Amino acid sequence: MPSYLFASTSAPIVAASLSLETLQSASKEQFAVELAGDDELTLLMGLLGIELSPPTLLSQSHDFAALFDYSSKKLPNLSLSDFDLFYGDWARSTCRNINMDEYGQLMFLRSYAGAWNRMSSRFILREKSSHCW
């Protein structure tokens, strides 16, 4: 499953997306979410009321394959009950198992929405696949 890193920063996105190291320097918090692919990411963000633009491919990045910039949109500030409703919709839409790992994987959306909405850049990076041959 591809891993997607959710992050926000006041630095330019291009600089943050060059490598994991530059991302960690530019953004205080990043959260990894494992998804089945870009379609599942689009579904996730759609449930949050955010329509994603097509990704920008990152051929120059060491660690990331694509960038999804949603800086022009704000994450919803979800109460705990709103998050539970969102998570129920997510679980039903994706046929995922409802367990604490899955639930916790997305809890950052509730915890960091306010702070991230104050940043100039909000984005998601799809990590490059690592293959062991």
Essential attributes:
6 helices, alpha+beta, 5 strands, 133 residues
What does this protein look like?
It is a single chain. The chain is of the alpha+beta class and 133 residues long. Helix content is 40%, strand content 20%. The protein contains 6 helices and 5 strands, in the order βααβαββαααβ. A 5-stranded antiparallel sheet has the order 2-1-5-4-3, with helices on both faces. The longest helix has 15 residues, at 80-94. The two termini are 18 Å apart. The model has no long low-confidence stretch (mean pLDDT 91).
Write the layout of secondary structure elements.
Blueprint: E1 3-9, H1 13-16, H2 20-26, E2 30-34, H3 38-47, E3 56-57, E4 64-69, H4 80-94, H5 100-106, H6 108-117, E5 121-127
Q: List the total number of helices.
A: 6
The average pLDDT score comes to: 91
- In helices, the fraction of residues equals 25-40%
Which residue ranges are poorly predicted, with pLDDT under 50 across at least 5 consecutive positions? Answer: none
- What is the overall shape? globular
Question: What's the N-to-C terminus distance?
Answer: 18 Å
- Main structural class: alpha+beta
DSSP, total strands: 5
Order of strands across the widest beta sheet?
2-1-5-4-3
Could you tell me the strand content as a percent range? 15-25%
Largest sheet features: 5 strands, antiparallel
Radius of gyration in whole Å, from Cα?
Answer: 14 Å
How do the helices and strands follow one another from N- to C-terminus?
EHHEHEEHHHE
